[in-house]
Task: structure prediction
Amino acid sequence: MSSSKIPAEFQLIERIQAMLASAAAEKGVILGIGDDCAVLEGAEGKYLLVTTDMLIEDVHFSRAFSSLHEIGQKAMIVNISDIAAMGGEPRFAFISLAFPSSFSLEEFDQLWEGMIEVARRYSLLVLGGDTNASFPQLNDHGLVINITLIGEVQPSELISRQGAGEGDLILLTGQIGDSAAGLDLLTSRRFFAQAASGSKPEDICCYQQAVQRHRVPVVRLSESRIISRHHLATAMIDVSDGVATDLRHLLCPRLGGQREMGELGAILWPEKIPVSEAAAKVARMLGKEPLTYALCGGEDYELLFTATPDQAYKAKELIERQTLTSVSIIGEITEKVKGIHLIDGQGQIAPFLAAGFDHFKR
Amino acid sequence: MSSSKIPAEFQLIERIQAMLASAAAEKGVILGIGDDCAVLEGAEGKYLLVTTDMLIEDVHFSRAFSSLHEIGQKAMIVNISDIAAMGGEPRFAFISLAFPSSFSLEEFDQLWEGMIEVARRYSLLVLGGDTNASFPQLNDHGLVINITLIGEVQPSELISRQGAGEGDLILLTGQIGDSAAGLDLLTSRRFFAQAASGSKPEDICCYQQAVQRHRVPVVRLSESRIISRHHLATAMIDVSDGVATDLRHLLCPRLGGQREMGELGAILWPEKIPVSEAAAKVARMLGKEPLTYALCGGEDYELLFTATPDQAYKAKELIERQTLTSVSIIGEITEKVKGIHLIDGQGQIAPFLAAGFDHFKR
Result:
């Protein structure tokens, strides 16, 4: 029997989903595998949101690029972002760690303080965990972090990936591209040094912003709460794998949707996509396409959501007024085309082809 | 500043606990860090039990000693055992995996089938997960498994580590020592081969039993449910780190107990400790002390609990009748001595000194 290699992450998830398809119908389960969080019945009529995320050193983060304090912050933030993506609030965290043998108590404290700082900021309690020795072969660089987060949401305020419909507008909080641009800068240090030496101060500021946002992403929790409390979105996801990839999840609900997979399409308006100034500058310097950072970059942790046109403008207005975070209306959901399309200046529609971020390809 | 090495697991847990001491007083939290599971308010007046456990290849398991199917089974079982230790029933699992690059789809299926087989047996649903590439430096042997389990228990049936009192008897389900003896056999394959060639068939059977029990431990879920439904225990824990180490947790409740740390002691009756026949035979062959396997071995996943004398005999009778699992009364809780003591044939009491199993020393 020939031995097939482990497929890319999304295929593996589909394989697991197929094996677990019956789970969603069980007592106490509102939503099974396939969204940002699983949704369970909780106390006092609320729903519980549960998400888990494993981070491996030199796969998901690098101590060459980020301090342990930043790595701890980000590990917590990416999980909070999954709770925010469903309209909920984070409550409890369970942290498993594996340390390389060279890890010192000071290093532990830096990592831990980063996690706890974010937990405190969002009134999140660490209630359990597990500490372990990492792989004996890896004397250094063997850090593994797994965080399971439990959040809460009122049933009427839950927002899933399923629910977008023909004519809905597509919205995005904040600006995108920073994280991918920052990672590009970090991995091409030579360019960074060259560029920095000959760069204007405002450019250096932009580079630093991109790098910093890669190290410690934003958390759009207040924005998510406005959307969920006012029932403004028909579907929502956080941008972890790139707008293009994550938008596809809003077009192809995987479990128990009313419509067939891939029945919906999206048309994006390139000039409306909020590429950050920093990402644009980095792209110019490194000879890249700013829209690639923005649509395929990943790890922006902005909220991508769909809403009926009147709710869309209300969401934009409310969020911008209450949080000062900008909201962009970047396209619309359609049944006329399948998948994601871009519309150019002449009104021509062309399919968007580039693939998103995939942990197995990185 | 000198850099101190990461301390052994228990010290690290104490350090984390000290940082998180306030967590237990929060809304919705019944028990914070420091027991087998965290305890939260759940739906319909029930309590939720949450536990998380990370397993690292060649630290916690070895593919040289166990098949991937067995590794998957054990990963699920050790978490179910934490739920059983508090009197609850497992409901939902969240699995994070990191695979080495050489991992094949067939290998994934073997591991997954092991986990799902156990999940099905205990009506446990897998509701989420995360799949990742493991450390790039580890082409092989880089498997990481993290399981977070959510269980349920009626508030009146919850059993914590806190609650043992003077005069309580100490009870243990089943027999102990197999897992440590099995691991010893596996790590001393030369002895195993020699012994097997010159051994009687019944001895070989014993060796195989010990090895098998190391690979796939028992789950004492029915036994736990009898204890919790009938309110038979004052405190309970599962034997993961060795009876001696785990018993200490019942003497020194770490969080919010009514008594000072270490105020209680335990006297064990060596002749009552249910050392398995297999462990005794392996000890004889390898020139070891059977009681060391039994008290310091770890990974037996039997239930260790305390009960008032009349409840103790009732527990023994009910469990043995309803499950066919033997229950041994192995000692008593006392305030006369501190820590764990053994009483010898002449009635002399001597402190028990050997340390338990610790993941960082392994």
